[in-house]
């Protein structure tokens, strides 16, 4: 069903429009193990918190890393061949967007 609804050309246009941000941050792991994944997550969290403290908007842009076989190409593109890009985040100044809807805590925890 996804293949019928989402087409590469349309998704590429949407991603290109999202790239109007002031910057991109690519978080790269040294290896493919869990410890490296935790380090990447911590670095991303620190980046997001600092961006928020500076009044910057930020959002994940995961399309470049969703296809595992393309990650080496992204690593080479950013000058880090042999490493593993795990997260991509765009950031910059812009209007605040509405938060995602959340269920009440008591609806998910018993």
Can you walk me through this structure?
- Helices cover 42% and strands 18% of the residues.
- It has helices spanning 2-5, 8-18, 34-53, 71-77, 105-108; strands at residues 23-29, 57-60, 84-92.
- A 3-stranded antiparallel beta sheet has the order 1-3-2, sandwiched between helices.
- The radius of gyration is 16 Å and the shape is globular.
- The model has no long low-confidence stretch (mean pLDDT 84).
Q: What is the radius of gyration?
A: 16 Å
Percent strand equals 15-25%
How do the helices and strands follow one another from N- to C-terminus? HHEHEHEH
- Percent range for helical residues? 40-55%
Write the layout of secondary structure elements.
Layout: H1 2-5, H2 8-18, E1 23-29, H3 34-53, E2 57-60, H4 71-77, E3 84-92, H5 105-108
Antiparallel strand pairs: 1-3, 2-3
Short key terms for the protein model shown above:
single chain; 110 residues; alpha+beta; 5 helices; 42% helix; 18% strand; globular
Q: What is the structure about, briefly put?
A:
This protein is of the alpha+beta class and 110 residues long. It has helices at 2-5, 8-18, 34-53, 71-77, 105-108; strands at 23-29, 57-60, 84-92.
